[in-house]
Design goal:
It comes from Xenopus laevis. This is Fucosyltransferase. By secondary structure, this protein is of the alpha/beta class. Strands 2-1-3-4-5-6 form a six-stranded parallel sheet. The protein has a five-stranded parallel sheet with strand order 9-8-10-11-12. It has a two-stranded antiparallel sheet with strand order 7-13. The N and C termini lie far apart (113 Å). The chain has helices at 2-36, 101-104, 192-200, 221-225, 245-251, 265-268, 286-298, 300-304, 322-334, 344-347, and strands spanning 55-59, 82-85, 96-100, 121-126, 145-148, 155-156, 161-164, 178-183, 207-209, 228-234, 257-261, 278-279, 313-316.
Length: 349
């Protein structure tokens, strides 16, 4: 009897132990599925490496002191894999340092003074023309990538560009009640644009806005200029590809027909349809230009022919520095073999 009792006790213990093992197995399986998901068809790759760290792009200075949100690149500019910062303490970790020329041009001491980390890119950035970019000589053999409005830059950052649309956008011209507008603040009597205006004004009425002229509040900039049929997009200096906000923003964004004074017509036509602007060089005299503008003013059909291109294209003129800097990310990731630019001075002239 005692032996039989011990046998039953042993069997009960064995059954209880087996039950505990089974329960523990199912509990562990349930917990594992909660933590890792129910789909266990994909094996866990224990050999996978962590993602490559972001490339740090350091803005050595804010351009002209203007600040803007970093790491918020527009969708058309891929900023993934990069981290933008203005924190100079990250200099030694930066893959690239963007040097805005006008903010560092007064002295070599305004450039980074610490030893450069191996293969770090120094990016020379400007939107100003050679006439307004002094003291580039001390940057010789220091720059790795160029970034400017010039089409042959390593990083092309124009003042504006055209984008194709599907033709379904409304083609609506703002009401035009005035003739010619011009915004100018740097009034240099010896410049070509002022001299040309002096020849033009006896034959054409022009409303001038800017310093010492008519006021142009920034919030109403486009609203005011949209009243005009024509806009004088006269550049402050004449250089290859130097086509600025005077055309892209002041004229095209306000639906005014730009009258341009700058590089050659063929240079403009690299970026714009031939009929989208009027070039002063198309006329032997300023009076000839004035006569043509007055003729267009009286002929709406002929005037509107200069806007046919808008049925398929639209101008884009960024009003922030952000899109320009965002382009550095892709350029650094796609950069060719590391090299040093021999001479900014000889190239940018």
């Amino acid at each position: 009897m005692e032996h039989k009792t011990r046998t039953l006790s042993f069997r009960n213990c064995l059954l209880f132990f087996t039950f505990q093992v089974v329960v523990a197995f199912f509990l562990f399986s349930a917990l594992f599925q909660v933590k890792h998901g129910n789909d266990q068809t994909e094996p866990i790759d224990v050999t996978s490496k962590p993602e490559e760290p972001a490339k740090i792009i350091l803005l050595w200075t804010w351009p002209f002191g203007y600040t803007f949100p970093l790491n918020k690149c527009p969708s058309q500019f891929d900023g993934t894999g990069c981290f933008f910062t203005a924190n100079r303490s990250l200099y030694s970790e930066a893959a690239a340092v963007v040097l805005h020329s006008r903010d560092v041009c007064s002295s070599r001491n305004q450039l980074p003074q610490a030893p450069r980390p191996p293969k770090q890119y120094w990016v020379w950035f400007t939107l100003e023309s050679p006439s307004h970019n002094p003291n580039t000589a001390f940057m010789e053999k220091l720059i790795n990538l160029t970034m400017s409005y010039r089409a042959d830059s390593d990083i092309f950052t124009p003042y504006g560009w055209l984008e194709r649309h599907d033709g379904k956008e409304n083609f609506t011209m703002p009401a035009k009640t005035k003739l010619v507008a011009w915004v100018v603040s740097n009034w240099n009597p010896n410049s070509r644009r002022i001299k040309y205006y002096e020849e033009l004004k006896p034959h054409l009425a022009v409303d001038i806005y800017g310093l010492q002229h008519l006021p142009l509040p920034r919030p109403k900039h486009i609203e005011i200029l949209s009243q005009y049929k024509f806009y004088l997009a006269f550049e402050n200096s004449i250089h290859e590809d130097y086509i600025t906000e005077k055309l892209w923003h002041n004229a095209l964004s306000s639906w005014a027909l730009p009258v341009v004074l700058g590089p050659s017509r063929s240079n403009y036509e690299r970026f714009l349809p031939p009929e989208s602007f009027i070039h002063v060089d198309d006329f032997p005299t300023a009076k000839g230009l004035a006569d043509y503008l007055n003729e267009l003013d009286k002929d709406d059909n002929k005037y509107m022919q200069h806007f046919n291109w808008r049925k398929h294209l639209k101008p884009v003129a960024p009003e922030s520095w952000n899109p320009h800097y965002c382009k550095v990310c892709k350029a650094i990731k796609d950069a060719p073999s590391y090299r040093t630019f021999p001479s900014i001075t000889n190239w940018f002239k």
